[in-house]
Design goal:
Radius of gyration: 18 Å
Number of strands: 0
Distance between the termini: 15 Å
Number of helices: 13
Shape: globular
Structural class: mainly alpha
Largest sheet: none
Order of helices and strands: HHHHHHHHHHHHH
Strand content: under 5%
Helix content: over 70%
């Protein structure tokens, strides 16, 4: 893959990834959050299912089980955590900022999972990135009514996503076509979200324009677009580069949420993002391909 094509792939990834946060924020105004996540995952999986069965190698049991695990870690836990945080009232831009600390968690977890110890520069970059999040979070705490514990949800979800990213990179099923792996992961997540949605109040969809439009946006842009591009980029590049590229989404999400929902946008938040970006760049430059 040439550099120009890789850059175009990464630009599309940033836009679609940012759209996921906005879609969750929009849909949460029209339905309970786990009902939204259930139908996002279920519809995405069903759209991909015919292609997964017809195109690509035959799905074997030993190949499906790891994808189920990745679906639990990278979709159920990750999506559920940051979506719940947004629905509770944590500013969408801040959630994007916290979840896009993924490069730091990938770097930290590379030692126990991939056997790649952190360098001194990576530790420094991780600390700088964490300080930036603290600065931005302090500003948001003053402007939000969300409880303090809600701010830990995207951290927990990002940790789960980092584990899934490294396990998938190491897995022997890493070469499974993207549409097949994404289909299995979406359907696996739908099973878990159905239990949570039932506990939350029910699993039947809400036949209203806001809910249907939000689901379509989340399915075709934020799931098929964002996750498809993410896994494709992960196979064509290094985990450090791909996760670092995702860090370009928080400023886009902040501006987008400010325009659409009137969420807080301030200079301290921008400063916190800039500090975190410095830490991310430090880690990314220190990471081996």
């Amino acid at each position: 893959m040439t550099l120009a094509i890789l850059v175009l792939l990464e630009v599309g990834l940033v836009v679609c990834w940012s759209a996921g946060f906005i879609g969750i924020r929009f849909a949460s105004d029209h339905a309970p959050i786990f009902l939204v996540l259930l139908w996002r995952s279920l519809v995405s999986g069903l759209v991909l299912l015919p292609f997964a069965v017809v195109f690509g190698p035959k799905l074997r049991r030993q190949d499906i089980l790891p994808q189920v695990l990745f679906g639990v870690l990278a979709m159920s836990v990750y999506l559920g955590s940051f979506a719940l945080a947004i629905s509770i009232g944590v500013p969408t831009g801040l959630v994007a900022l916290i979840t896009d600390m993924l490069p730091l968690m990938v770097a930290v977890l590379s030692a126990p999972i991939l056997g790649q110890a952190l360098t001194g520069r990576q530790w420094i970059g991780s600390f700088i990135g964490f300080v930036g999040v603290v600065i931005a979070s302090g500003c948001s705490l003053k402007a939000s009514n969300a409880p303090f514990w809600a701010y830990t949800l995207p951290i927990f979800g990002t940790l789960s996503f980092a584990v899934a990213t490294l396990l998938q990179k190491r897995s022997s099923t890493n070469m499974m076509p993207v549409h097949q792996s994404l289909c299995i992961q979406c359907l696996s997540a739908a099973v878990i979200f159905s239990i949570l949605a039932w506990h939350e109040g029910g699993v039947l969809p809400i036949l209203a324009p806001g809910f249907v439009g939000g689901i379509l946006w989340l399915v075709f842009v934020a799931t098929l677009g964002a996750w498809g591009l993410y896994y494709l980029a992960l196979r064509k590049s290094s985990p450090a580069r791909v996760t670092a590229v995702l860090y370009l989404s928080p400023p886009l999400v902040m501006i987008w949420a400010w325009i659409m929902f009137g969420e807080p946008l301030s200079w301290p938040m921008a400063f916190g993002f800039t500090v975190s970006l410095l830490g991310i760049v430090t880690v990314a430059k220190s990471s081996k391909r």
